[in-house]
Amino acid sequence: MLHSRISSLKNNAAFTQASSRQTLSPIACLEKKRLLLYTKQDCPLCAGLEEKLKAVLLRAQFAPCALSDCVLEVRDIQMNEAWNSAYALEVPVLAIMDGTEEVILPRAPPRTTADRLQQHIEKAL
After folding, report:
1. CA-to-CA distance for 37 and 94, rounded, in angstroms?
2. Does pTM top 0.90 for this prediction?
3. Tens of pLDDT, residues 7-24
4. Of 44, 50, 65, 107, which is least packed with CB atoms within 10 Å of its CB?
């Protein structure tokens, strides 16, 4: 009984639309701008910036802005030798990938608020 109910829900157009909003297909990810955050383990500045970025992007889902079409990609520099040699002494590093070009954004102050961080990123866009 439950299995047949689930099957009927999956065939329902409303269910299909609702579930497609929650997951991004690979094609949808390619269409969106990616915010790249280069971090490393045990880095309090990295964790703070990541938390603020997640808050800004969550808010952007409900209040349309320049960041509404962005997704966050966190990259651990210790997993890639090229990233480690480039950013070992500079993390956290925030960049934006628009198409195939990666642009490093100017560093935001560590004590900046989420609102100021959003303004900082939008200015760079």
Report:
1. 5
2. no
3. 443 444 333 333 333 334
4. 44
